[in-house]
Amino acid sequence: MLSISKVFFLTSTSTLLTFILQSIAMKIVAVVLGPSGVGQLGLIRQVYVSGITLTTLGGQTALVQGASSKQGEQRDKFLKATFYVFLTISILVSLAVILFAPIVSAIALKQNTQQAIDTIRVLAIALIFGGLNGYFFGYLNIHNYLKEIAISQVVSSFILCLISFQISNFANSMQSYAVLSFLILIPLVSSLFFLLHIMWKKNLLQKLYTRQLCIVPQEMTSFLLFSLTVALTSIVTSLTLLAIKGMILEKNGIIFLGNFEAAWNLSTVYITLMTTSFSTYLLPKMSELKLKEDKRVLLKNVFLFTTILGGLLIPLIIGVKNLLILILFSSEFSKSIEQLNWMLIGDYFKLLSWVLGTCMLAFGDKKSILITELAFSLTLLTSVYLLTPFNELELLGLGFSLIYILHFIVMNIYIVSKLGMYFDRKVLVIWLFGLALVIFSSILMWNEQQFNIYKLAIIFTFSIIFLLTCAKLLNIKSVNQLRVNL
Questions:
Q1: Secondary structure tally for the chain: helices H, strands E
Q2: In whole angstroms, what is the distance from residue 243 CA to residue 193 CA?
Q3: How large is the average pLDDT for residues 236-256?
């Protein structure tokens, strides 16, 4: 399990650096262009994200799952065939964007000017590179080229950060094109980096450049069905969040929505940081294992590692949540703490639900993925519809927390049914201790309106006790033994 800790450190570090660099770039855009430039970027980015969902068929999940479950020549044939699938779909989606640019511009940008239409058409270039970037990212993930993935993410974001000021200065007369450059640069640089790496390794291009296409109809049908399932759930999730925000805006107003966004984004950022770090390890590893016992061992290790990490990180975030809101937003968003109090408790369940839910993706269980995600989205929508009339952020946070707990229970039932797996006493004790620490930290900081270093010190002390208890339960007495256990 040493690879778990190594993968987490490598990918979380690169993801964090990428986030910081892109945040700096966005800050520069905000200063130079003002609210209109940021708003324009937000609209174009939403179109781009929707297009990428189609060009990559909901991301590279299906590619990683399909290739990881194969070996040798069978995997090579699969990778070759799916490369042309990604390329074809990217081109078709880009052509559709070019042809229907006036309609897309009118709906998404609320404009029908020639400049707005041209902006949408130029976006097609970013979609082609974005689709190819999705394939290359998945390819490197399958072959455990994690350093290359990390380097490409950081380098592309660093270049974006360097030239963001220059791009923004060109926005006086052609704002849409200037903002569009931010979307093109990262997939372009990443794709070129991946291509150079693959040429250096001299393996993928040789396998792609053959006369025989090697498409197996049954495998491609399975791949496309799974891809469309993932893409559909991604679209549903995106539309659900859009509907929730629209509902809150209509019933509670823009200030209420702003506070909701602050709490939601803060919760999402660190959870995404952790899940992105694990996804590069767990999904391909779980997909390639054949024996149930091996899958149970892997899942137990990742679940245990995530439980310890969540039990340490979430209480510390609870301790500094007021400071984070002040730094990332402003004192005007202090009401978001009411929602965040409950959401941070729910995040403990949400994080572990993701670990268990990855198995569903690894198994290629299309029916369960579709039913679970649709039910989860419907439950979120229903809860917001029922709770928004009360005009209380705290109730929304409580609703989300209860839904995450329900999702965690469902994922556990699924794992028991598929793997016949029950966690042993040590894992359960560590999980319960972590949950107790999260709840204790929440109660301690619940009504705290400002950053309190003394209460943070109490949380930190109990976090150390939690870590030492975990080491005791796992019989870890030294750093060398920790390496063996991991």
A1: 18, 0
A2: 37
A3: 78
